[in-house]
Structure formats: structure tokens, C-alpha cells
Amino acid sequence: MCAVDEATLESRPEPEQPQRKRGNPVKRWVTGAVGRPWFAPLLILTCFAGAAAGVVATNPTDDTGPTTCLFKLATGFDCPGCGGTRAFYYVLTLDLPEAARHHLMAVFAAPFIAWMYLAWAVPRLFPRLTWRLPTFHLTPGLVTVFLSAWGAFFVLRNLPWPPFTFFYV
User: Fold this and answer.
1) What is the b/e burial string over 106-115, where b = at least 16 CB atoms within 10 angstroms of the residue's CB?
2) Distance CA 31, CA 34 (A)
3) Are 107 and 96 in contact (CB under 8 A)?
4) Assign residue 12 a region: left if phi > 0, alpha if psi is -120 to 50, beta otherwise?
5) Which of 14, 52, 73, 119 has the fewest CB neighbours in a 10 Å radius?
6) Is the entire prediction scored with pTM above 0.90?
């Protein structure tokens, strides 16, 4: 015989059956979507479309007030990015000469950035496609050349005599 107290047996709770935890359905959907290969390309495309819609809706070319560029406020010179938003607006409205006048380097880089995005996104969005866009690899030398050209553009656009005053925004 076993020396077990009957009171101990009666006071012991029965083990609970494991219940299925449903959790938050939004959290489950987000967790499932983030792991999908199409999620990042669509998220980037959505953010780009939102930025493009915001730029077109606000029209940054209608001089509505003083500049908000801290570099220009402090030095009086155009910064390396000055004119980028206006150039983006003109690219979206297909006025490429005016876009190039506001920021030539951004207009030059835009097709390469679009190509790199498509080469990255198409296989993720359409995995069954058998063809692929050729990838554009950024080597350190190529990045150095581009940044050097951008630096030269930054200096030249701030020179106060023609033909460089064409790029002054």
C-alpha cells in the first residue's frame, strides 16, 4: 500500500487540456506577409508611389517661402542635394530639361536606380519567370567615380559665372 494522503489527492487540480491560442489575426497576417519574397519589393514600390504622390500634390517648384535647407541657410551655397525634390517633380511630370537644370546628377542616376530595383524586384514578384534582367553591379571604383562626379557637380554649381550659373537653383 502506498502512504498517500487522500486529502492531497482531492486538492490537486486536474491538468488542463492545452487550448489552441489564436492570437491576434493582424499580427499573424503581418508575420506571414513579411516572410514572403514579394513583400519587400511591394513595400518599396508603395513608399515610392506615396512619395511621388506627395511631391506632385505639393508642387515644390512654386516658391512658397524661404528655403528649409540648413546647409543653404548656413552657407548660402547649394548643398549636394539641393534641387533634388524639384528635379524629382519635373521627372514625374516628364519635363526632363528642367529636371536636369535643377539636379543633373539625380536625373543621371534615376534610370540606373530604376534598373537596379527592377532587376532585384522582378524575380521576387514573379518567381516563375524564366528570364531575368541583367544585374548592374556597383563596384567600389564605380561608386568612387560617381561620388567624385557628384562632388565636382556640387562645386561647379556654386560658381557664380556662366555657364555654371545655369545649374544654380
Assistant:
1) bbeebeeeee
2) 5
3) yes
4) beta
5) 14
6) no
Mean pLDDT score across all residues of the chain: 82
Positive/negative CA dihedral, 92, 95, 96, 102: negative
Percentage with pLDDT > 90 across the chain? 31
pLDDT confidence band for 2 (50 / 70 / 90): low
